[in-house]
Each structure stands twice: as structure tokens, then as C-alpha cells.
Design the sequence.
């Protein structure tokens, strides 16, 4: 059950790859045929044309149970995500381009071809910002043509590939005066060369899947084929590889899925295994989440984004190889995520220091790091776990992260971003949570590529039918795996309301299974098929409806949208004695500015009765924060503010006196969109 | 009320000082007379000989209400502190010398005189480790002659002064190849040159007060007089000064107190004011706690040790100048300390990241930094505030830090040290809390100098009599400020028992006030003078007993040693719903290894009744952890371990089921002296 090829076999694959032709622009289809001629990997040549490849192209991934649907097959209509996605393409992506220009990220490229005399600007991984931005455009172009964005991206890509060296190397930080430092152990550990390459490949893939234009993809592949594969790897004459910041692993596997060349999978496997020839500081092994066999990992630790991206790469590797040791490790790590490391918002990474996971159950609120990129990495990892298993528990994490810890990362106006996504905030801390620019600007374009690719996460196909993962007004125009064309329409006010109407229109009556996701929170969910109630519906599962589907068949889903009070494990020390409030997939918070003047959140308590959750009234406000359901609750605040009390005093058993107060709660994701104000997700409670 | 001299006056003082002779070894008294000849500062020439100078020499400090008693005047007898202090001189100080040698800290000096070919070793501030170690020896020699330690220290000091340049400069990191980098803005900000000089001066002062040998003090003074004063300062031809890591300020003022030269006070004032000619990153202004006028500070922030040392320097400056703006700022900062920033152990500095103060009320337990040096800085600051005011609230902080957050810093065997002093611990975190060596080894010798100088903190004199600050078996042989010789004997089992017997033996019957400290926690304290109960005794005050004291008069103090349950302000999020347990000055904790097998601290709750505190039984165990009072308590643990529970789940109002368990608590300061085990100070509670 370990189908990874041996080191010797890998070396022969390398020998082949280093002579394989790189793809000239426009000659992509021919090259794919050419790739198909490489021994032993012909079975993996992609069968889908560029237009038909999804967020991941899993069509030929032998261990994928679910297969992606292309972004362009799904149209998200007016509803919850439409405004966000419109803002993304109209404001976020364009303004980020200007920011990248203003901060010299493109000058770094121009400098190398004599078009700029500016110094190298930004951190060592600045090229990746350009790639993530280009990737955003790539996904956006799959939903709609944006001629201006395309023009900018085309031109950016031309400027990027112009600096590629004949060796295939391309990294503005390590070209020019720092050329001698490239790919040394130190620069591999901290220099993000392969991380930038990974993002170049992902951008190239997205852009190719959008446009058929493989210019950037070719450059990335050239980098891999000409520079990396011949010189770096396990061979006695090769220099070891350490990815430093995992990213290259999943990018290489997607490159394989795009080109059919299996050596990229082998290279990813070698990187995931770690090369023991290099002695690496054990603390860096933890921090980097690479450098030792992935399959020896038993807990999430170190830099959160690195860990999430490593898990993505490992899951991708499993999808291609079926390596049981990987699947086992991935599930051990996932249990650690779910049981001890994930914020209720789907954010991960507790510590600002090293942007890292904390100890088990270390989930501070105000001090939470919860980097937007890490929440995105969490979604990406779970998307791969879902593809491998078809299990709804992974989709629950995707939904949790997407609606909360990711969605919070971009302001409603689309031009400021969270790097940290804390679960409590006091403006007295002096932090500015949303900013238009960070010198380490990984999060903004990461958010942009996520929202741009979102349609690709709504559905999957499987051998037996279709999976519905996410709910929003949308249309799917695609086909079953047997080729039968199918359209599906969703009509819903989700996540504000739990009714979802699906209308299926297969081209011809067909027997297949429609797997509809019942969110983990949706107890007492109900399903009707053409008006007939279904039995056996379980929260946190896909409910499979196998029948002969005819055009116009309807499925009505009802997910009771009740306000629920959530407690955390008592080992989460900051949440003990506090509760969080959830309604559907939305986690709520309180912002001080929504409360009566003079009410300090630090002095607030909710009032919990035996009617748990019923103490809240929900109200949809269309003109408030782009349209949200707010919750109203009668709680209490200390009669004497705790700010007046001593830090330590003799305990008493008499609770401090409270006076009743009406509280308003808003979805967490819209916090910090007005003037700075205190915020908290977890609030103390008293019994009614 | 702002007696600081003007900038112009300061410059003229500088001109004088730069021509003042440095002190050749042995010629110290003459030099002091010489210093007395400098205009305007003659009134400040020290009146006490070296043997009679205390931890601080406040004899001539115009704004000191209390005056130090020399370390040698106080003998700590068999009791609470004797074992610790014996271990300190017999094991800690000697083993630290070996560690310093093994880690090349003296090689750095030898290298510069051609006696070593080793590379520079250790961080930029490594010289200070040598100075703090020498200072420890200096204080130790004031209690007892330790010929071997003295020999080592003498020889170390000879090796130190041998590298001093004719210019007066002395810093092994910036001599040799880095000479051109010295005292640039960057090196002043991060290079710790003046920090090392400050520690050289403090060591020189301690060693001089122990031995009369001014070799090291002379070298330090030469550095100040020849190198610093002429070249650095506010003058148009002088380079600005930023202390970078405050320390030089208090050292300069103690140099003034030792030599009578007032220009050192002026220099300290200039440094405390900050030199606006240099543009400093605002984040570094926060971090360094210097670079802007100290009197503009309104909260504790940035690097905790830097902040504490800056406050020490500012308090010292106030003691010499009476500058009201300083006293006001110091009190604002002290309120911030007490109300929002101090751990119950007296530790300060919440964050590992930047070793810094957190936001207000940010006092995590497991993640607490609570650097030993910061708790020591806290004690040093409060010692100065006490001297300026005579107010017991400052002594309460000294006692809190000394018995808990400082005392925890050294293992019972004296050879391993805490850098962090967290208030909760899980060995699964992988942290090793006590270590024999840190490459940044500031804390170990800081602890050593503190324990060595401890007798100097027991008593002070004032115009009207004597203050008793700390309680332990001890003898004072000193005199009142009118010159009347006085001995005082303390007999007590403090802190395990609250009875203290004081026997006073003035050489002749004398009218004076004996100020005995009633600890802030000692409600219902009682005092008898020669058997007569006193009235008006208040906790948290000095109780002044003015009478004609005759030889053999006795004062019996009784501080009811009750176990008290402490709650924190609800704004401390980790402590909400939890309590701490205190008995006298001792803060208690639970270590998992003292509980029944299988009991996880994370699942433990105390049981609180209306008899708050009476639910604990105390037991003195002489053969346990060097002799401690342990507390026994019947609490409870979850029937189902929280480790088995989900991270988030729907809240219920029914409390988890507990099964009764007998708990054992130990003083916080002895934690982590056995095998690694979970520990916590703050424990959840349920009502009985």
C-alpha cells in the first residue's frame, strides 16, 4: 500500500523530465500529448481540456472520490456571496494591483531587465504576491471576462517571464547580486525560492485554466524541469531540497494534474519525505513543518500557514498515490485540528510569535493570530480531504472557515484586509486590524484568489452522481461523469434562512445519486424530493438521494436556522465560563459600538436560561453591513465597571450585581467595518 | 519644583567632569574629597564610608525618606531565607562562574589582550553577565568572607580592567573588529554598550562596598568620565545618547551616591529625558522604554525588564532631585502595574514575543513570560518607591515578588534557573522551564545578586527611627540616624507562621519610632509592645510605635496566617471563573504529581463554600521541598476527562459531573523542582 516509487526509479524519471520540452505559448495541447509519451505516466495524462479543469483537476487522480467542477460551470447569483465577489473583482483585485505597483513588487522584475533602477523591494518572498494576484485574476476570468484585468495580468506575466534565466531560474530576490546565495540550505530554509515557484505554478495553472494561455505555466514548468529536477533531489550529485515554506508540494502535484507528468508527484513526495542529508535545527523542523517525513508528524505545530500548506501537499500526494501512511497521518493531524487547535471561526494559529500553532487548546481570543492565510490553508486542506473521502466533516470545516475566519479577512468595501483575525479586540491595544497594505502582503491576494475561485467549491462529481457542498443562489451547468449534461439551480437565502430549493435538469432522465450536504450544525434538517419528505437525514453527513432524476425535479432542503449557544472544551482557558453564539454557519460577535452608550463589553454577560438559544431574536437588516441578520438579546452588565475594581481581591461567592441591558450581536465576519470598537466572540454568561 | 539643571548648566558640569581624575586603586577616599571640590555638588559628597553603604546609598539623597542599612549590618539567621542564601553562595554563584567560563564569557576579555584566540562568544550584552556575577560576589562578601569567591572575583576584575582602552572604553563586543560600530545610534539602540557599563558600575559599587577595592568601580567611572561625558550628551558637538536597554540611569545615580559627583545625576536625567535629535522608530520607543521624556510615559509597555529598569532609574532620579513630574509619572506607572499588569506572583511581562508587557489585563498563565529579571526589576523599583515615600504598599509588592515570582526563578538546589515564570504549565508543551544555562543568561546572575543582597532589604532608617520591612529570623546591628547604636533581633517562623518577636537593644534608652510593616494581606494583625496590645493596627501600613525604647523591649507581631482565596479582576480573561490560593505572602499552586494518579489538573475544580479559605488545611512538612507548608483541600475532578470532549459543543446549563478528590497544593516558588509535571496557580472552582 505504498505505491511511491523507489529512489532509483525517481532518478530515472528525473533524467527523462530534464530533457522534456517546455511548452511554448500556444503549443500546450501538443505538449500534453508529448507528455503522454513519457513511459509509465501515460495513464495520468489529463483527459480534460483546460476549460474543464476545476480548482483542483482531479479527473485522473486515482484516489479522489470526488472530482472538481470547473469554476466556469458554476454561476453564483444574487445572494450572500455575490456582493463580496463583485467587490473582489471591482475593488480588491484592482486596488491590490496598484498597491503592488506602488510598493515596487513589479519593479523587482523590471530592475533585472534594466527597466528600473530601484533597489529590490519587499521581503524575500515578494514575487509570490504577484503570483497570487495573477492567480486571482485567473480564477476571476473563469467566471466572467474582465478585459482590463486580463490586460494587466497579461502584461504582468510578460514582465515576469522576461526575467527568467536560460537555466530556468526565476526569482527576483536571488537574481542579480544574490545569485550565489540561491538554493543554498540557508536560502532554501528561509528564502522562499520554492515557495515563490509554487505560487508561480499555481498562478500559471489558474491562468491557463482561465485562458488557455500557458505563458506563466510554461515558465514555471521550465523552472522545475530545467533548473530544479536535474540539480536538486535525492541523487548523489544532486543538492537536497527543503521546501522551507511548504507550497511547492501542492503546486507540483497540480502541475502534474495539468500536464500529466508524473515526475512532479515524485518530486513532491521526495520533498514531503525530507532529505536527511541536511542537518536542520529541530526548532526549524517544527517551525517549517517540513524537513522530516510528513508521515512522522503527529500534531499541528510551528508556523500555521506552513503546516496547512504542507497538509495540502500531503493530501494532494495521497490523492495521487493512495499512500496509506499519508492518509493516516493526515487524519491524525486533522483530529488534532478539530479537537485541540481550531478556533470556532475556522481560523488556526494561536500565536503571533512565529505566526504559529500554540500548545493543545491554546486558543486565546484577543491575542489570537488566526492569520487569514492560515484559515485559507485550512479550507484548502479540507477541500482535499473531502475529495479523498467524500466525508461531510471536512466540508463542515470548509464552511466554518469560509463564512467566518476567511470572510472576516476582507473588509466589506474590499480594500482593507485582516492579517490577524482575533476573536476579541480592544482598540486600546493600538492595533489596526484592517489595513490596505502589509509589507508581508500574503493575505490580501490570498483572500482574493479564494473569493475568485469560490464557485469551484460548490459542487463535485463522483462516479455515482453529484455532490452539493455549499449553499447560495447559483446555477450549475455541467455534466455527470457518464457525460450526461446536467443543470442544477439553487434558490435560497442561505445563510440567513435555512430553506434551499434545488431544481435539477438533466439533459435526459438519469439514475444517479444527488448527495446534499447536511451541515453539522443542522439538527432536525428536513428534505423533500418533489414534495416527498425523506427519512434518515443526519446532520454532518451527505444525504444521498438515488433515483431516476428527471428534468424539473426539485429537492427542498430545510436547515433549521436556530441560534445556538456554543461552549468550548474547558481546556480552552479563555473560553471557560463563556459562550459563543452561532446561527447556521455564522459565528456571531458583539461590537461595543452596537451597544448602549457606556456599556463596556468587558463588563457584559449574556443571560442563559433553560431555553438555550431562544433568548435571542434574529432580525434581517438589509441596509446594515451589506445585509446581515443581527441578534438581539437581553443580557446584563456589571453595575460597577470592572475597570474600577482591583486586579486581585479576596474572592466572594456572591456574583457581581448586573443591570439588564439589551445587546446586539453581528456576524463575526463583518466586525471592524466601522469605527474602531471593542469586539468579542466569547462572552461570559449568567443563568437567568 | 523642577530642580533639574538646565542644559547649559549640564554642559558646564560635563566640562568639569571630563577633567576630574579617575580613581587609582586604593586612592578612593582622597578622590571623594577631590570630587567634593566640584562646584555646587559638595553637599552631595557621601558621608558614609564604603562599609556603611547599603543596597542603595541614600544617606545624602535629599528626597529619600528612608535610608538603607548596609547588608553587613543584617544577619539572616536559620529560617526561611538561610537555606536559599547558603545554596546561593555555595552552589549557584560558583556553578555560574563555571558556566560563564565554559561559555566563553571571560574569553571575550582574554581575546582582547591576546590571551585567547577564541571568537567573540555569546550575545552582544555578554559582558553584563560577568558584571552581574561579580556584583553577586560583592553582596555576598558583605555577609561573610568567602575567600575562594573573592579570589575568583578579584582575578576576574583584573582581567576585565586589563582590556580598558586609554579612552576609557570597555566592551568586549565593540572592541577589536567592531570598534567602528560603537556608540552609533544603531549600536546604542541594540548594542547594550551603556547597559553593560551600567552593570559594570553596579558591580563596581557592590564590590567596593564589600571590600573597599575600587578597581572595577574606577574602571567604570573612567569609562563614564573619559569616554562618555566628554563625547556624548546634549551638547552641539556631542553625540546623543539613548540607553537602548535602560540600566545606565540607575547605575549613574548610584555612582553619584558613591562618589558624590552630581554630574552623574545630570547625565542620568539627560538620558531619562531622551535626546530628540535622533529619530527613533516609534515601536522601538515603546519597546526600549527610553528615547522620549520618561515623564511622558503613562503606561507600562514594551520590554518588561527595560521598563522596570527605566522606572528604577527614574525613581533614583527623583530621590536625588525631587522632580515632581517624575514622581507623578512613577505613580501613574505604578498604578498601571498594580491595577492592570502584575501577576499575582509579582511577576511582570505577559508576552514571550519581545519579552514584553501585554495590553491592560493581558495576563495569560501558561503563556506568561514573567521573566525572572523583570520580577527583580519590579522589586528594585518598588524598593526605590518605598525609600521615597515610606509607604507600605510598595513593600507589599516587594514581598509579593520576592517570595513568589523571584523566588521561583532559582531551583532549590541552586543550579537551574527559570527565565520564564509561567503560572500554569503543561509538560506536553515541551518547554523546559528550569535550565542551568541560557545563552541570554541575564536571569541567573540577577537572581544571585538579589539573594546575596537580601539582608539589605530588611530594614531602613529614617529621621524618626527604624523601619522593619521583611520578616525572618535575623539580627540587625546598626544605629539610629542620631548615631545611637541599636541591635534588633527577629524571631519567627515567617512565612509559615505569622508570629514575629522583635527584641530591641538600643545602646541607651532612646525615643524613636519603630515602624513595623503590616502586610497588606494581614487583616486582623495584632501588635503587643512589652505585652501591651496596640490599637489602630491596619493592614498594608507601617505601624509606627513611638516611645522611649529601652534595651530588651519586645514587640510581638501576629499576622493571622490564614489561607485566602483570591479572585482576579474579570478583565483578566484566563482567570475568570478561577481562583488562586494565598497563605501569608505565599502564593500556592498545584502540581499534578502531588495529586492522585490519573488526576489531570485541567479537569480539577476547587470546592468553595461560604467558609472561603477554611476549606484548606495547612501542614508544615520539614522534609518536603526544603520545608514548606502544604495545603490540603477536598475538591473535585470531571468524571469524564475534558480531553475526551469535543472542542466546541452546544452549551448546557448542567455542570459537568465531578467526583470528589483530595488535592495537595504547594508554594508556587517550589514548583518544577521534581520531575516535569503540570502546574497551575489559578484553578476553577465550584460552589460546595
Sequence:
Amino acid at each position: 500500500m505504498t505505491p511511491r516509487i523507489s529512489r532509483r526509479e525517481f532518478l530515472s524519471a528525473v533524467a527523462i523530465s530534464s530533457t522534456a520540452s517546455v511548452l511554448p505559448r500556444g503549443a500546450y495541447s501538443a505538449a500534453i500529448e508529448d507528455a503522454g509519451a513519457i513511459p509509465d505516466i501515460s495513464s495520468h495524462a489529463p483527459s480534460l481540456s483546460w476549460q474543464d479543469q476545476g480548482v483542483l483537476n482531479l479527473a485522473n487522480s486515482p484516489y479522489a472520490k470526488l472530482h472538481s467542477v470547473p469554476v466556469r460551470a458554476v454561476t453564483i447569483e444574487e445572494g450572500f456571496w455575490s456582493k463580496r465577489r463583485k467587490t473582489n473583482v471591482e475593488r480588491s483585485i484592482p486596488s491590490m494591483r496598484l498597491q503592488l505597483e506602488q510598493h515596487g513588487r513589479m519593479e523587482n522584475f523590471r530592475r533585472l531587465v534594466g527597466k528600473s533602477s530601484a533597489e529590490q523591494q519587499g521581503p524575500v518572498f515578494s514575487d509570490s504576491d504577484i503570483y497570487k494576484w495573477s492567480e486571482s485574476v485567473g480564477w476571476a476570468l473563469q467566471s466572467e471576462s474582465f478585459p482590463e484585468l486580463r490586460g494587466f495580468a497579461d502584461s504582468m506575466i510578460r514582465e515576469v517571464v522576461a526575467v527568467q534565466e536560460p537555466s530556468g531560474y526565476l526569482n527576483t530576490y536571488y537574481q542579480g547580486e544574490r545569485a550565489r546565495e540561491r538554493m543554498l540550505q540557508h536560502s532554501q530554509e528561509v528564502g522562499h525560492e520554492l515557495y515563490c515557484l509554487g505560487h508561480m505554478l499555481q498562478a500559471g495553472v489558474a491562468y491557463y485554466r482561465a485562458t488557455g494561455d500557458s505563458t506563466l505555466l510554461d515558465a514555471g514548468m521550465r523552472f522545475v524541469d530545467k533548473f530544479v529536477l536535474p540539480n536538486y533531489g535525492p541523487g548523489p550529485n544532486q543538492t537536497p531540497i527543503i521546501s522551507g515554506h511548504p507550497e511547492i508540494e501542492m503546486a507540483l502535484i497540480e502541475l502534474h494534474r495539468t500536464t500529466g507528468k508524473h515526475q512532479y508527484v515524485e518530486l513532491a513526495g521526495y520533498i514531503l519525505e525530507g532529505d536527511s542529508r541536511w542537518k536542520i535545527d529541530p526548532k526549524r523542523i517544527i517551525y517549517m513543518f517540513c524537513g522530516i517525513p510528513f508521515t512522522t508528524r503527529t500534531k499541528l505545530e510551528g508556523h500555521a500557514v506552513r503546516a496547512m500548506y504542507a497538509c495540502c501537499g500531503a493530501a494532494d500526494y495521497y490523492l495521487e498515490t493512495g499512500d496509506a501512511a499519508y492518509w493516516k497521518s493526515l487524519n491524525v493531524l486533522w483530529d488534532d485540528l478539530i479537537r485541540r487547535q481550531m478556533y470556532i471561526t475556522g481560523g488556526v494559529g494561536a500565536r503571533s510569535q512565529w505566526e504559529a500553532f500554540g500548545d493543545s487548546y491554546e486558543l486565546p481570543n484577543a491575542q489570537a493570530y488566526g492569520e487569514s492565510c492560515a484559515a485559507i490553508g485550512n479550507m484548502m486542506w479540507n477541500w482535499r480531504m473531502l475529495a479523498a473521502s467524500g466525508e461531510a466533516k471536512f466540508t463542515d470545516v470548509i464552511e466554518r472557515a469560509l463564512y467566518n475566519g476567511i470572510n472576516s479577512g476582507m473588509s466589506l468595501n474590499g480594500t482593507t484586509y485582516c492579517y490577524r483575525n482575533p476573536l476579541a479586540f480592544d482598540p486600546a491595544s493600538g492595533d489596526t486590524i484592517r489595513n490596505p497594505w502589509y509589507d508581508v502582503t500574503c493575505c490580501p491576494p490570498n483572500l482574493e484568489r479564494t473569493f475568485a475561485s469560490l464557485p469551484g467549491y460548490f459542487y463535485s462529481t463522483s462516479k455515482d452522481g453529484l455532490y452539493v457542498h455549499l449553499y447560495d443562489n447559483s446555477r450549475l451547468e455541467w455534466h455527470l461523469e457518464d457525460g450526461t449534461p446536467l443543470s442544477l439551480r439553487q434558490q435560497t437565502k442561505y445563510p440567513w434562512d435555512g430553506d434551499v430549493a434545488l431544481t435539477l435538469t438533466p439533459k435526459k432522465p438519469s439514475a444517479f445519486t444527488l448527495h446534499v450536504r447536511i451541515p453539522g450544525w443542522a439538527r432536525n434538517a428536513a428534505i423533500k424530493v418533489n414534495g416527498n419528505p425523506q427519512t434518515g437525514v443526519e446532520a454532518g453527513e451527505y444525504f444521498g438521494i438515488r433515483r431516476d432524476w428527471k428534468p424539473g425535479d426539485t429537492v427542498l432542503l430545510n436547515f433549521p436556522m436556530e441560534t445556538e449557544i456554543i461552549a468550548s472544551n474547558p481546556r480552552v482557558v479563555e473560553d471557560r465560563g463563556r459562550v459563543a453564539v452561532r446561527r447556521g454557519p455564522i459565528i456571531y460577535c458583539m461590537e461595543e459600538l452596537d451597544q448602549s452608550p457606556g456599556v463596556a463589553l468587558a463588563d457584559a454577560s449574556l443571560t442563559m436560561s433553560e431555553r438555550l438559544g431562544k433568548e435571542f431574536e434574529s432580525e434581517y437588516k438589509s441596509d446594515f453591513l451589506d445585509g446581515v441578520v443581527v441578534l438581539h438579546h437581553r443580557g446584563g452588565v456589571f453595575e460597577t465597571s470592572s475597570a474600577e475594581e482591583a486586579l486581585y481581591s479576596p474572592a466572594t461567592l456572591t456574583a457581581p450585581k448586573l443591570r439588564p441591558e439589551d445587546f446586539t450581536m453581528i456576524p463575526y465576519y463583518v466586525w471592524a467595518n466601522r469605527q474602531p470598537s471593542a469586539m468579542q466572540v466569547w462572552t461570559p454568561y449568567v443563568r437567568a
Q: What stands out?
A: Residues 463 and 481 of chain B are 6 Å apart (CA to CA). Chain B has three domains: 7-45+78-457, 459-558, 564-687. The mean pLDDT of chain B is 93. Chain B touches chain A through 58 residues (CB under 8 Å).
